[in-house]
Amino acid sequence: MVEFEEVLVPVDGSESAHRAAGFGVRLAEAVGMPLKLVHVVSLTPQLVMTLAKMSKDDIHALQQQQARAVLDQAQAAIAACDVRAAIGELVLVGDAAQEILGYLEAHPKTLVVMGRRGLSPIRSLMVGSVSEKVMRYALGAVTLVH
Fold it and tell me: The whole model's pTM is what?
């Protein structure tokens, strides 16, 4: 059996992600593991067009600003749980499922706790949801929270 070293909670600002963050932090505290919140800044065509006109520093600042709002929402959901787990944060850029799977490949002793539905239900009908892709392709344990 794999001994996990951390609980990873992908967050996107959705209610489902907030519930996953609450569940994940309670789980992390119960088993004595750190919790890491991860937000993936998606490179939509509109964002790519905007970024093409910006400096590298401005691009980084914009990505951090977008991520900060989502991470702050997740931190607020966690604060409501009144637990004391160590919480880290990570911002990645790209396709959410691919970035999460890449992280899991590099950190195989990670337990993922994620919301079942994110912010884009229409898009997920066409290309599959992030949670579905992570569940299908992750080599480790993934817990979906409804």
Answer: 0.86
